[in-house]
Amino acid sequence: MNGHAERVHMKLPDEIARVEIPLTFFSVPVNVWILRGERVVLIDTGPRTDPSRERLVRGLEDLSLSFDDVSDVIVTHHHIDHSGLLAELAARGARGWCHEDDLEATADVPGSIERKMAGYRSLALGWGVPDDLVAKLCGYLEKFGELGGVTPLERMRPIRGAEERLDIPGYGFRAIHVPGHSEGQVVIHDEERNILFSADHVLERVTPNPNIYTPPYRGRTNGLEDYKHSLERLRSLPRDILVCPGHGAPFRGIHARIDTILEHHEERLGEILRLLDRGHGHTVLDVARKVWPLLGAGDVGLACREVHGHLAILEQSRAVSCTSERGAWVWRVA
After folding, report:
1. Is the pLDDT of residue 7 over 90?
2. Which of 197, 203, 213, 247 has its C-alpha lying 20 to 30 A from 29's C-alpha?
3. CA-CA distance, 125 to 233, in Å (whole number)?
């Protein structure tokens, strides 16, 4: 396949439907996957907004279903475009599933965001972001708390460990823990149908952004290294598996796509190392502006996440060193 994923022009199995949910903060809709078997199962939900809810309701109605028919909701990770409507579905009787490492953030969206704010603010200052822009970034993040609800823990079933077979009658789902884009990101392997619901871990045309971990997760504050290791875990999947992602159309060629994503990060490591001026110190924001000269204020957080992850890997390989100066991390070529 010449290193490229293969776009699939095919009909999904009759028992699987894809509903594209509009997002106000991202140009590409999020996918909700509806599975109809012995039970009705959703994989992800969309955010808690009126347009998202209306679109999901219409998608279910097209299948002669409603919220009341949904027995289980598998949330692949806690980000609000994937988890926002869980509380409403749980209130109508559905059982929620997510990885144990994302349980708090999935079950209590506004509370989790509020608890993470101090850590996020500290990270942004460490990146060298000016105080006024830190305040804007934090305000943007706080608004995300409005896009999700609170699900009682008794309605949740945590997915534990590196992988687990989900006890949902009529389905042979295997949840695989692939941290990096979030602490508790999972992908769902439907072995019977040879389908992988890849969430945001593997997308066909977009390279997922590494998460920032607040508080630190497994001793790290950035998810890029976890993400790269998690990609390697999926190489054991069949080469012809159909990938149903969190954004975009289904595709085949997961192994080629993994290669492309890892190559991108290796190229980015080299680019960042070349952009560091010897003898001078650079903050994460300095480097982000070198990588993306036209970087807008609204994209600073995402850009700094990626750069921070690459600098941390370069530091582990002793290609760069890091010191703290006036409250910010400063990176230099070693």
Report:
1. no
2. 213
3. 34
Among 291, 47, 310, smallest CA distance to 299 is for 291
CA 278, CA 269: separation in Å to the nearest integer? 16
Identify the CA nearest to 79 among candidates 48, 51, 53, 105: 105
Residue at a domain's end among 220, 244, 264: 264
Q: pLDDT tens digits, residue range 20-30? A: 999 988 778 99
Residue-level pLDDT at 217 = 96
Count of structural domains, the chain? 2
Residue 38 shares a structural domain with residue 84: yes
Locus of tokens 């190392």: 273
271 with 242, same domain: the answer is no
Does the pTM of the predicted model rise above 0.85?
yes
Q: What is the pLDDT of residues 280-302, one digit of tens each?
A: 999 999 999 999 999 999 899 99
